[in-house]
Amino acid sequence: MSEKHLMESLKSLLKEQKLAVLASFHEEEPYTNLVGFVTTDDLKYIFFVTPVATRKYCYLITSQKASMMIDNRSNNESDFNDAMAVNATGKVMEAEKTDELKDLYLEKHPYLHDFLLSPSSALMRMKVKSYIVASKFQNVVEIDMS
Known about the structure:
Elements: H1 3-16, E1 19-26, E2 29-39, E3 45-51, H2 55-63, E4 65-71, H3 79-82, E5 84-95, H4 99-108, H5 113-117, E6 121-135, E7 139-144
Antiparallel strand pairs: 1-2, 1-4, 2-3, 3-6, 4-5, 5-6, 6-7
């Protein structure tokens, strides 16, 4: 797959998929959650929302290390040849809920309006260090975003 085609496929996957598996860390132990996410057009940042009174928020604020897996599997045998999975790694910090970021998030997730705007929720920003893209089951390519 050419670099241009890989980036187009990555952008398409990240635009189409609504959920990601977020892995945060606490005392070197991973902790996973499903999150609704959105990326910036340049793919350098991923945003998601979490309540502040959760383990997830505490772990992210404490370690700032996180990983997200986004995929398009259908839970069928064909996934071994057709599915694409992406692992994004990076540093997570709380972001200010600016109008621009609220609009970006709500364009993809309008049904999460109240969740995003709740004072008990935080908008989190992952600065992506790299994307590891797996396709055709064993074809793995790393894209450095730093």
